[in-house]
Specification:
By secondary structure, this protein is α/β, with parallel strands linked by helices. The protein is 37% helix and 15% strand. It is built from 9 helices and 10 strands. The strands form 3 sheets. It has a 6-stranded parallel beta sheet, with helices on both faces. A two-stranded parallel ribbon has the order 5-10. It has a two-stranded parallel ribbon with strand order 7-8. The chain is globular. The relative contact order is 0.14.
């Protein structure tokens, strides 16, 4: 049985991992990364440490720029250093798609990170610092997931879902989005943790979604009326080329599927079913 330490109390991803990892193969503990108590907590005896603690989904200001760096970058590197000193063999770090600094476009294996936000920069700086620790014994696994959704999730998904149910209208347009259902992420993590490997990973759903499909699935889950007028797609694509709010909602942003084959489960639920489960109506 693998012993896994989830570094980050009350984390959405961390809680899901504790609930869904196969208890016959994994024994999970949780460490609270707030304050200084975790620094006195021994990591010895764990096969893997999964760092899910961090700050996100906060409006970036001059006042919290330092906090982003302190928590997402420096604390992450310090946790990695401690894990290595305590004899942990695998350290899993949750980075982000934000390291690429893109609101629209397709990301390939050759695409170089270029963060535009303080959040993205803090994650990339953490990756750089942690990479210096990796060797043949201490395996560093870095994940750069797209938007993660599921019951109780935070961030962009619930904001869009609330907008659909409140406005009952969303212009129809053709786009593609990489998304990652929480159960699919947990299945991916089972394979990664069992392997003990390091590397750079891009877990995502096997099929791209779209704003149209998401809006339709949310409306169907709540049995609310949704009007999707046609004829505005060209305008939305034009306005969203440079990113911004329109680009984030109606633009295309994907990982090349060839980047996401490692440890991904063969069977994944239909997208509409994942939305229904996320909305809590199944």
């Amino acid at each position: 049985m693998k012993r896994v330490l989830i570094a980050g109390k009350d984390s959405y991803i961390g809680n899901a991992l504790v609930q869904q990892l196969d208890t016959a193969r994994f024994a999970c503990d949780i460490a609270d990364m707030r304050g200084n108590g975790w620094r006195e907590h021994s990591f010895a005896g764990y096969d893997s440490v999964v760092l899910v603690a961090g700050i996100a989904h906060q409006r970036e200001t001059a006042d919290n720029r330092e906090l982003y760096d302190q928590v997402n970058h420096r604390m992450a590197v310090e946790a990695g250093q401690k894990a290595k000193r305590d004899g942990v063999k695998q350290f899993v770090f949750f980075s982000s798609m934000s390291v690429y600094g893109m609101d629209v476009g397709r990301i390939y294996a050759s695409t170089q990170p270029n963060p535009k936000s303080v959040y993205g920069r803090s994650k990339l700086d953490a990756e750089t610092g942690l990479s210096a620790l990796a060797d043949d014994v201490f395996h560093l696994a870095v994940l750069r997931p797209p938007i993660i959704y599921g019951s109780g999730c935070k961030g962009n998904y619930p904001r869009l879902a609330r907008m659909v149910c409140k406005l009952h209208v969303l212009p129809k347009t053709k786009n593609e989005r990489s998304m990652l259902y929480i159960d699919t992420l947990c299945a991916f993590m089972e394979g990664l943790l069992q392997s003990g490997q390091g590397g750079l990973y891009f877990p995502q759903n096997r099929e791209y979604s779209s704003t149209d499909a998401l809006a339709s699935a949310v409306a169907a889950a709540h049995r609310c009326r949704l009007w999707q007028p046609r004829g505005f797609g060209w305008l939305l694509r034009l306005l969203g080329k440079n990113g911004g709010t329109i680009g984030k909602v109606f633009g295309t942003l994907t990982y090349d599927q060839a980047m996401s084959t490692a440890f991904m489960p063969e069977k994944q639920p239909e997208f509409a079913l994942t939305i229904a489960k996320t909305e809590g109506v199944t």
